[in-house]
Design goal:
mainly alpha, single chain, 65% helix, flat, 177 residues
């Protein structure tokens, strides 16, 4: 099993990105990208594809970080660097970190009165979030927007508000209704 050091990002940190040369930034992105992809593969193998893993995939728009950054512009390099820093700095970017966080959540639930097993706790959490997502999709407003083909409103909110994801645009759209 792979072992990861605490403070791991320090190995790839180049300080102020705006002051670093493009070549230094490119090398840092390539080195950190390889390490981050190793972590992502370990998380996939362990079955942990939510949380910080899902956030990184959403932020990137793809399943892996760039390991070859030769064709990236400076702006793309800076964006990749920022996502890498966020991902690699997260405690839950490794399987052991996810297990520690899950254990801590369960222990917190126990101290607040939960009496079931860890498996029962996560089963209840999963059912709760599934139910919340189903309620969101069952929303009459969303149904009408989708069936009437008025998703252009959601697209407009994305551009107008400089929202990062379509989900955030949808929430802002719903808030306007």
């Amino acid at each position: 099993m792979a072992r990861y050091q605490l403070g791991y990002w320090a190995r790839y940190d180049i300080g102020d990105v705006s002051k670093a040369s493009t070549e230094v930034l490119r090398k840092a992105v390539e080195r950190a990208g390889k390490a981050a992809n190793n972590r992502m593969r370990a998380l996939e193998k362990a079955g942990f594809t939510s949380g910080v893993y899902a956030h990184a995939v959403a932020a990137l728009g793809r399943k892996r970080f760039k390991e070859s950054a030769k064709k990236l512009t400076r702006a793309q390099l800076q964006r990749e660097y920022a996502v890498l820093r966020s991902y690699m700095s997260a405690q839950t970017s490794t399987p052991a970190g996810v297990r520690r966080a899950n254990k801590k959540r369960y222990e917190t639930a126990k101290t607040r009165g939960f009496t079931g097993t860890e498996e029962e706790f996560y089963d209840m959490v999963e059912r709760y979030y599934t139910k919340r997502v189903e309620q969101l999709y069952a929303s009459k407003v969303i149904y009408e927007a989708i069936t009437s083909g008025k998703t252009d409103i959601i697209d407009a909110v994305l551009q107008e508000e400089a929202v990062k994801t379509p989900g955030e645009a949808l929430l802002q759209y719903l808030a306007r209704k």
